[in-house]
Amino acid sequence: MSGSKQSIDQVEKLSRRTFLQSGGISLVSLSLFENLVLQELVAAPADQKIETLNRFPRMVQEYFVRRVREQEAKTIKRLDSLKTKADAEEYVQSVQKRIREAFGPNPERTPLNARITKTTERDTYRIENIIIESRPGFLVTANLYIPKGITKPIPGVVGTCGHSHNGKAETAYQSFAQGLARKGYVVLIYDPIGQGERIQYSGDDLKSTIGVGVREHLHGGNQQFLVGENLAMWRAWDGIRALDYLLTRKEVDPKQVGVTGNSGGGTMTTWLCGVEPRWTMAAPSCFVTTFRRNMENELPADTEQCPPKVLALELDHADFLAAQAPNPVRILSKERDFFDVRGAREAYLRLKRLYRLLGKEENISLFIGPTYHGYSQENREAMYEWFNQATGASNESKEPKLIIEKDETLWCTPKGSVADAGSKPMHVFTAERSQELAKQRKPKSGAALKSVVAEALRLKHIDGVPDYRILRNRGGKNYPLKYSITYAVETEPGIQAVVYRVSDERLYSRPPQNTGKLATLYVSHISSDAELREEPLLKKASKEKESILYTCDVRGIGESLPDTTNANSFFTPYGSDYFYAAHAVMLDEPYIGQKTFDVLRVLEWLKANGHTEIHLIGRGWGALPATFAALFSPQVKQVTLKNALTSFSDIAETEHYHWPLSTLIPNVLTNFDMPDCYAELKDSKELTQIAPWGAIGTDS
User: What keywords tag this UniProt record (predicted)?
Assistant: First the structure.
């Protein structure tokens, strides 16, 4: 990575400071370049860079492209095998089952405790400001648009919002809700978690302490993975409970209920088609494409847009809509959207073939608006037309003249915040679940511990010694010993773990085969190159004359630190490190498990070069794969961990934490926590701990 010279500690401090300071930045309401603007806001400043070696900056990107392509090919093969109506019906049932496996079971349907806090009368409709509880104490704020003069039940629509600062009050979202109401639909539009009146990380001024929308979704959603929850299901459950409420209204025909939304609301519309069977029509806007297009285009997405195991289960965006087949679904796309319109067309063609087999080809449609991302008028009118065809509620698809309300008119709470109304924040639910799991969890050791760790990490095994490259020397690095040589150890096809051998002898070739069995392997926090220059542990290790010093950058760190998504974005919440960690979750191959695999393969490589007794050292983020590898490798005789995570429970049970998604393991707290591993290594491998880090990523 090129840039100004700074120490690795300075980089870490800057990254933490940037994370905190940028919490005050929120996404401008529905900019045409909504997601692109967001990415610019979260990009790291230029002076955060550190001058370190990075010879494989696109390695991780190309690895994940290959993996996502492999999964897409399996999805397409499933679809291509369909020949009859019965095949198609079986496919619909299959996607419904697989979606449920990804999202998990529905929570308990607890009382909605609905209340109307205000009513606003307009010319042809009224607006009721409503609060419901999707979970006990978890408040959802919504506006119900009801046409006047209703004499019999009429169609209803649930509206889901995208990344607008003001949620349901955003102009485009008011517009589609009001437009539908003026055409004879009852519309319930609700605030998403972390937006509008539903800020979860609320300060004394009732504003978000970390940033509205994406920031809250990432911060709360990443943390949820630890306890087996996922934000995709939490957000979808809000939509399901919104439908539950809508169907309590006598004005609504339960046989005609639809769902629509844009961007993040397009995501929710898509997911809701997959998890809720009661819809009779749907129109997701500015979201549907393919996971492959998003990966290839280096487009990050929020935690709720990356459901766990979804790729492993061979699901794509189209499959969530297939779960509704043969009900009417129109994909609303945009020619100039960052959600690739090519993927939208690919999704449509897959669905068209499925619908044709079901005898309802006319019930699937694709509309491509000419402009940029957003629920603009042409997309709204395409939605009106589609719902009108499905229901017969109106013959008019053109949008009527609208009245855009002030945000305060649409507030359901006195001050525009559920925090002021006593809503229970999402992170409190996560903390409580962590505490419940701790009570249920039994301490594990020995083979039982190894079994649950291997399962959580999805560890795989490859027979044989990994091949490796010998890279050209780079001098003048001021390492603790005079010479170094770099080996790129191929841990699996397309992945190089970069290993430095540091010694007082000049080498251009393979490691000497007769230097003795003792070696020290240091797993870096961010960069072996930087840490060799400044880490006291490495200076100390270099003086151990009987042991040869090696360091290791696992995938996505140091020499393969990604230079992708946005420039200098690695340390940011929405940057390249998060991007790959989120895809690892969707592939059901936790990023930490992949990195642990790299360490184990490097240990095999060291063994093949004569080093059968290893002192394994890990620091910071690198202490996690070092810990797990030490559990499984008989070569490791001694372990030293500096700045190792105290426990995943500490992260799950706090409001604020600074460990990235790349260090977290989905559902880990169901079976074990880091203290189990430390106790095992203390007994068997002479574990030494130095300055452990808590949830905020420091020892303070």
Answer: Hydrolase
